Amino acid sequence: MKPAKLKIDRVVLDTSLFVNPEVRNHFGKSPTDAINGFLSIAEQIPSLEFYMPSSIFAELLNFVDESKIPGQFLAIMRQKSPSRHELVCPAFLLYELIEDIRDRINKGLRIAEKAVRNVGKSEEREIIQNMRRNYRDALREGIIDSKEDVDLILLAKELDALLVTVDHGAITWAEKLGIRWLLPTKFRDYLMSFIDKPADSEVLQKKRKSKSIKK
Amino acid sequence: MKPAKLKIDRVVLDTSLFVNPEVRNHFGKSPTDAINGFLSIAEQIPSLEFYMPSSIFAELLNFVDESKIPGQFLAIMRQKSPSRHELVCPAFLLYELIEDIRDRINKGLRIAEKAVRNVGKSEEREIIQNMRRNYRDALREGIIDSKEDVDLILLAKELDALLVTVDHGAITWAEKLGIRWLLPTKFRDYLMSFIDKPADSEVLQKKRKSKSIKK
């Protein structure tokens, strides 16, 4: 009897899984612990392929000592940029993006005007700090605002993968583009559900057997 | 002998041709005059098809009394939206757009901070007016910032047409997308160059002949 072919699914990961304290606790206390915690689970799931855009991986290195990243992580977490010059996006997204930005730009100006009018009512430093916060919230919150975010979205689209992120902007676009997404807080449970699956265990056993035969 | 087939080219027009005083003078003193001036030339060029996105046509109606637009204009100036849900754009444009917007957003915040710090140095009203101008320049100049602009670009792309516009943002994107473009100030000369072309004159003569035969 021919063995059932293992169905492979793909997952694209954001840094938040290892970096964001609220999220990474599911895998480990420090970013390095979280990487090892993730690895110990991920290596038991041959039916999942894990990807991270190179730009996001570079961000991760701001939080983790490169010398402490196990080589196995480089093997399991595939670094790959989306095919930026081959991929296309539907034109209606351009309209939505540009209309959204237009609204935000107007909102930013209102916030700035309010700050100017408030001078004298409280300390200048405080006014500027408040304005900065409100301005950034209005112009950036819930929008894709960096090329790293675009990388995440496009790589997930290219690979037809599950996107694991907390970024509101990326989730909004995942919804527009029909990309599956999952909050990192749910990701450990998601992974664990694979570990007792018969198909995976069978493949693992076979792998182990062939290794011991080779020995 | 079979007559040579007339090669048709397409042109997508912005409102500036009829509305912007510096530009429309080539065709007429008022927007309505400019429409009639354009018509009298355009109807002599059977080898050119003229298009205007419906959204841009709606903008034109803010400047022209609808009852004064000749029916012939509706026949010659085809109103058509781009196929928004079928067209796609290359993904690298998303990167450029988002990086560009990110820079502009930061610039906008610097302008706002400067305005807050200037309060007291001159009148509040003046400070706010200056800030508004600088902010709009920084955040909008040279960028596609409305769905009408996107319509222009996408329609020109869809029709493989020549885009006639003064909008810097639209021209920048035309360059990125390989769309031919022309400044409206050169458009009259461009049109006139067709009028003495043998192919066009021949077709016109034939049209006139067949009309007189029908009579």
Quickly describe the structure.
The structure is a homodimer of 215-residue chains. The first copy, chain A, is an alpha/beta fold and 215 residues long.
Explain the overall architecture.
2 copies of one chain form a homodimer. With about 220 residues, chain A is of the alpha/beta class. Helix content of chain A is about 60%, strand content about 10%. Chain A contains 11 helices and 6 strands. In chain A, strands 3-2-1-5-6 form a 5-stranded parallel sheet. In chain A, strand 5, helix 9 (about 170-175) and strand 6 form a beta-alpha-beta unit. The first copy, chain A, starts with 8 loop residues before the first strand and ends with a helix. Strand 4 (about 90) of chain A pairs antiparallel with strand 4 of chain B.
Summarize model confidence as the mean pLDDT of chain A: 88
Quaternary structure type: homodimer
**Global structural class of chain A:** alpha/beta
Largest interface: A-B, 45 and 45 residues
Biggest β-sheet description of chain A: 5 strands, parallel
Q: How do the helices and strands line up, and which of them pair or pack?
A:
Two copies of one chain form a homodimer.
Chain A: E1 9-13, H1 16-19, H2 21-24, H3 31-42, E2 48-52, H4 54-60, H5 71-76, E3 77-79, E4 88-90, H6 91-118, H7 124-140, H8 147-159, E5 162-164, H9 168-177, E6 181-182, H10 187-195, H11 198-214
Parallel strand pairs in A: 1-2, 1-5, 2-3, 5-6
Helix pairs in contact in A: 6-7, 8-9
